[in-house]
Specification:
The chain has two domains: 197 residues, Rossmann fold (3-Layer(aba) Sandwich), CATH 3.40.50; 169 residues, Rossmann fold. α3 crosses α4 and α8 crosses α11. The chain contains 13 helices and 14 strands. It is an alpha/beta fold. The two termini are 27 Å apart. Helix content is 40%, strand content 15%. The protein has an eight-stranded mixed β-sheet, sandwiched between helices. A six-stranded parallel β-sheet has the order 10-9-8-11-12-13, sandwiched between helices.
Length: 380
């Protein structure tokens, strides 16, 4: 049983949908998904796999917690899950209480942490309150999983003391996310830019954590240095971002798209300018799987994921980001092709969908007492 806050576009939500779809035809496993709010973006995809989906219709904030606990407890008593995984903070809190009262038992529960280095000042009072409670409750579940080493470090520093830490890095379907040279011209035609223009892309919703303003400053610096570039923004509400006048003609915001795997291969460089909140950013792995080198801020596990296939720069440093972008753009074509191949190969070797799924299945089996926790990739 998976429990998550909601199913709108986001990293945790997309990984959940990916995992559910990958296991949908298994004869050994039945999955149930519960969204505390509504179906969002991914609900239809989950239902299409034949997986049972419950939506509880809760409102944001602390006021929805009691109703969520009651509703979830009833579903757990009906479904009797062998293993329970909660995704994101509010779900961790509600699921822990419901797992106890339902009689399912906390030994069957895992929290799945998807972030690191959170700046809680940027979020609501309920998130701050729940996060504080979770630190005190962190020894209740059988295990706490993280998708990044930075996530473990951050939460331990903020009072998390679980029985065990498990490492569950993200994985990617490299048959879906793959290089496609034809999309370079297709995307330029859609954007009405010249074929010679270099496309810099960032896939990220409008959110304080994503620090689009630093990216805009970096783009302006690159343009002042004479680089012929165009920035493509993909993500919810990006079309409402305030674009500086100096680069307005060099930026296209596409908003929320469901065909991102057909857009990213058209980029020359993918950028991530986030300053907090990221653990293992999906967008970094997806771009690399498409053979697109990444320039990312040194947040979460980005440096470890990218390795030497791209560039990692300090947080909120427009100048350093511009330097990295220009360095990649100025490489000879042979070096560019080698870098693109290396980026994809790194995902194939270390972060495949198959390896991620194996890790998840092992954790679920351990919760269901079919496998030992010592078989997992545990963090000290």
């Amino acid at each position: 049983m998976h429990i998550i806050n909601g199913l709108d576009a986001g990293g945790a939500e997309s990984v959940l949908a990916r995992i559910v779809a990958h296991n949908a035809n298994s004869t050994e496993l039945r999955q149930v998904v519960i969204s505390l709010m509504n179906e969002g973006v991914y609900g239809a995809d989950i239902r299409a796999t034949g997986t049972r989906l419950y939506t509880l219709g809760l409102c944001r904030g602390v006021s929805g917690l009691p109703a969520g606990i009651i509703k979830l407890t009833r579903i757990m008593r009906s479904e009797k899950p062998d293993a329970v995984m909660s995704w994101l903070y509010h779900s961790d809190f509600i699921t822990t209480v419901a797992t106890f009262f339902s009689g399912v038992g906390l030994r069957r529960l895992a929290w799945n942490i998807r972030c690191a280095e959170m700046d809680l000042k940027q979020y609501g009072e309920s998130t701050r309150l729940v996060f504080k409670c979770l630190g005190a409750m962190s020894s209740f579940p059988a295990i706490v999983a993280v998708n990044s080493r930075a996530g473990k470090k951050h939460h331990a520093k903020n009072g998390y003391k679980p029985k065990l830490w498990a490492y569950l890095p993200n994985g990617f379907d490299c048959d879906e996310w793959k290089p496609d040279n034809t999309l370079r011209n297709t995307l330029r035609s859609e954007l009405q830019v010249r074929r010679e223009t270099s496309l810099i892309g960032m896939v990220a919703r409008k959110d304080p954590a994503k620090d689009h303003s630093t990216l805009f400053k970096a783009l302006e610096i690159c343009s002042q240095r004479g680089r012929d570039i165009h920035l493509v923004l993909v993500g919810r509400e990006t079309e409402s971002l305030p674009i500086p006048f100096a680069i307005h003609k060099n930026v296209t915001a596409l908003g929320l798209r469901r065909d991102v795997a057909k857009i990213v291969p058209g980029f020359d460089i993918a950028v991530l300018s986030s300053t907090f909140g990221e653990g293992f950013p999906n967008v970094v792995g997806e771009a690399m799987a498409c053979g697109v080198p990444v320039v990312g801020n040194d947040v979460g596990d980005v440096a470890e994921i990218v390795g030497d296939t791209g560039k990692t720069v300090p947080l909120a440093s427009a100048g350093k980001m511009a330097d990295a972008i220009c360095e990649l753009l100025d490489e000879p074509n042979e070096a560019k092709q080698a870098r693109r191949a290396a980026a994809r190969q790194r995902i194939l070797e270390h972060y495949s969908l198959q390896s991620m799924n194996t890790n998840y299945r092992s954790l679920w089996n351990a919760l269901a007492a079919k496998q030992d926790f010592s078989d997992l990739d545990l963090l000290g």
